[in-house]
Amino acid sequence: MNSSKLLANRRRWLIWSVAVVTLMVLVSPAAQEKRDTGAPAVNPKAAAVKGFLDRVNEYVALQKKVDNGLPKLSGSDDPSKIEANQAAMASRIKMARASAKRGDIFGSAEPVLMVVIREDANLRTLREARAAMEEVPKFDPPAVNTPYPEKAALATVPPLLLDALPRLPEGLEYRFMGNDLILRDTKANLIADFINNAVPTAAKTK
After folding, report:
1. Choosing a second label site near 150 at 20 to 30 A (CA), which of 87, 89, 97, 136?
2. Which residue has the higher pLDDT, 76 or 61?
3. Predicted pLDDT at 201
């Protein structure tokens, strides 16, 4: 195994080690409650992530419902038709989520995801930290139900960090904008939700 693979495996192990420690801290009060009351212990971290993924699946169900009422696209469609379809889908989703606000999807999973991002940043060298944030668009704070800027770079979330975050179904993806984590609707090009200041300042200024 070469040195780069060893480093990748070590980083993945360290990230999950921190997650386990965080989990133990979160579970302890629940375990104490079970001893005191006899009620089943609840893992707050697991419950928060499950709630997030449940809301993600609800959003994907909305995507499918909206898409069913639109003309079907083929691989040979011209760009203008694809853009018109995307705009129509965005309009319908915005109407269905007219009252949507920040945190509606991430919810209580925000601090859990922020810990994962922070630990990933702490494990990066100076060069890696700069490279990871190099293409991240630096725009004004995002807003829910607004388009992801058309001319903004779609900066890729580092693979090891992506592995550590909850897996998303087709139609949604994680992106960074400034130091915020974006939940992007890839079919409608909308910002479905975001986490403020998810990227540690140190990771951006190293």
Report:
1. 97
2. 61
3. 62
pLDDT at 28: 45
Report pLDDT digits (tens) over 7-52.
555 555 555 554 544 444 444 444 445 555 565 667 889 999 999 9
Phi, psi of 74 (to 5 degrees): -120, 170
**173, β-bridge pairs:** 184
**Can you name the residues that pair with 195 across neighbouring β-strands?**
181
- Rounded to the nearest 10°, the torsion over CA 30, 34, 40, 44 is 0
Q: CA-CA distance, 199 to 206, in Å (whole number)?
A: 12
Within the chain, residue ranges assigned H as helices are 3-37, 44-68, 79-96, 110-122, 126-133, 159-164, 201-205
Q: Residue 2 class from Cβ within 10 Å (0-12 exposed, 13-18 middle, 19+ buried)? A: exposed
Distance CA 145, CA 12 (A): 33
Q: What is the mean pLDDT of residues 178-191?
A: 93
Which token pair is 149? 């800027």
Cβ-proximal residues to 203 (8 Å cutoff; 6+ apart), any chain: 121, 124, 129, 132, 133
Structure tokens at 165: 């975050």
Order across the sheet with 190-195: list the strands.
Answer: 172-177, 180-185, 190-195
